Amino acid sequence: MTQLDVIKDQLREHNHSYYILDDPRVPDAEYDRLMQQLLTIEKANPQWVTADSPSQRVGDKPLESFKQVTHAIPMLSLDNVFNGDDLCDFDRRVRERLNKYLQRPLDQPIAYACEPKLDGIAVSLTYEKGMLVTAATRGDGSRGEDITQNIRTLDSVPLRLIGKNWPETLEVRGEVYMPSVGFEALNTKLVEQGLKTYVNPRNTAAGSLRQLDSRITAQRPLEMCAYSIGLVSEESPLPPQHFDILHQLQVWGFKINAEMRRVLGIEACLDYYQALAVKRSHLAYEIDGIVFKVDELELQKSLGFVARAPRWAIAHKFPAQEEMTRVLKVEFQVGRTGAVTPVARLEPVFVGGVTVSNATLHNMDEIQRLDLHIGDTVIVRRAGDVIPKVVKVVLERRQANAQVVEAPLTCPKCKGPVEREDGETALRCVNGLSCAAQIVQAIKHFVSRKAMDIDGLGEKQVQSLVESGRVKHIADLYALDQTALIAMDRMGEKSANNLLSALQKSKSTSLAKFLFSLGIREVGEATARSLALHFGALDNIKAADIQSLLAVEDVGPIVAQRIFHFFTDNETLAVIDKLQNLGVTWPEFDPVDTEQQNLPFKDICFVITGTLTSVSREELKIQLQELGAKVASSVSKKTDYLVAGDKAGSKLVKALDLKVPVLDESQVQMMMANAQA
Ligand code: IVH
Questions:
Q1: Per-residue model confidence as pLDDT tens digits over 244-259
Q2: Taking CB atoms and a 6 Å cutoff, what residues make up the pocket around ligand 1?
Q3: Is 117 annotated in the active site?
Q4: Residue after which a domain boundary falls, among 506, 527, 544
Q5: How far, in Å, is the centroid of ligand 1 from the Cα of 174?
Q6: Residue 299 · residue 98 · CB < 8 Å
Q7: pTM of the prediction?
Q8: Which of 116, 292, 380, 675 is at 20 to 30 A from 437, Cα to Cα?
């Protein structure tokens, strides 16, 4: 087999798993690279181009189980570029061709429609006399699958056109995709049900749309955006520009993308690309590039098509969010509460704009679900600012010497016993604060901003303080003096003094912060605050039995147990005494007769999610709490309002499910202003 045949075969295989099976075996970037290689070879040797080359068609044969639909006008693909120079070359070719065939001045800039390249599945919808009659997938470009029943379930698809003057026959083309929130929520549900998860939103949209049972499609949060037209009867002419046609489609009831712009010249296209690259991670859906289209239909017509794609459009792709790499080893890390978490050490790979060499594997269940072995080739995904994740093992590439991952029997740090508690997925080192890894994490938590807020102690310093034996538990921090600090690596007199004054300053705190900083399992900021508000004084908490702990809002039986145990442990109590003796202090109060009782938001429970623009989530939380509100971290039936910013995720889905009222940023600000008025 020649190298050319190998590439073609690989592309055919990837095409099949991607388009037919909805089960991509390799990341898009790998596919694009192979296609580029094929195109380069074929360009240099046109005599080698065969009719069955993957470069000569789009997608692959549709599955036999749906009725077939022949597209009146083939549904083509787009050529890709990966950098600005190649984009400028595209523009130059366009201008040169128009100059040659239409004598259009070479230096006259082209008007382009700029559109996000939505990462979903292409569909064609045919309307007769304004009624939706057929919907089809792209399939191999000439013939697709009849998915009319499924498409009818999408809210964003008009079943009957609105307005008037639409052509008797109108074929609208566009992308069906799944917004990120829906994708995350669906995968969470699938994990809970022990079912196979989807790799990415594109693959989820395809899988959801190609369900033989359209009732399943109906439950999936799919959307459709129109991006072009196909066959159109001629009696009522459409506008002569692509951009205006899409706005006409919007008038007739279609969703079009809100980011779409019309610009003049390729420089403006480059600016648009840059702007969207920044915006990308804040969009509610995934895009994998920008599509630039010559706006004038007359010019499009004269530019025409090549085998695979139009000459008047191009996709400028973003750096890939999925890449393939190898698992070199799996290590286990110990967290603050003793949870032993597997981490994959990877052959470094550039993905989602950064080099990634580690990815969390969460727990042994996840390793089993992925069927991950050491030495495996895996697909790593990093979308937005999210932590890199291993989403799939490429089983076809597993080598005979791939090793099964064994759960550790002892703690990787202190060699103490590791246990798995009933109903828990995590393995846990039971050595508590005699495990160095847990002490380091406990101290890191103690000094963190939302806890005691002690500046100047990074991971390295904490590690060296613990390993040298100078700090055995959190209270030892307050016993450090200048001599001890200066003896540390990379600690000069100035930083030592800064640290000492930070330690000093942190001693005046609040009961809520102090409780949070102790790192009691399951006691996050919100619970710490509830405890402080409920009991008012530390002694009351120490004396509380399970029953009285259960009376605190937000505290259930498990949390109550954890708190009770924490405060009945003699070693813990000794550390707390020591902290207080060393000067850590906070105002205590009697919760019964404080003003807290009369605050306007008393008994109102908020949850905040997504990216806010005017304040940080943290600031808003404090503002709400100052008005007496409770701010919880998860949505439940007890939640009164969800404040949802940009890119809100599964919390928004849950709130909608539970019919919890959702406020945007300005609405909550308004509510606060009214309450204070
Ligand atoms: S135009 C002849 N516009 O990208 C032009 N395509 O590789 C056909 N896509 O099959 C496509 N967003 O699934 C166009 N704004 C957009 C798009 C878009 C996503 C997809 C579409 C197409 C593929 C081309």
A1: 999 999 988 898 999 9
A2: 76-78, 115, 117-118, 122, 138, 175, 227-228, 291, 310, 313, 315
A3: yes
A4: 506
A5: 7
A6: yes
A7: 0.68
A8: 380
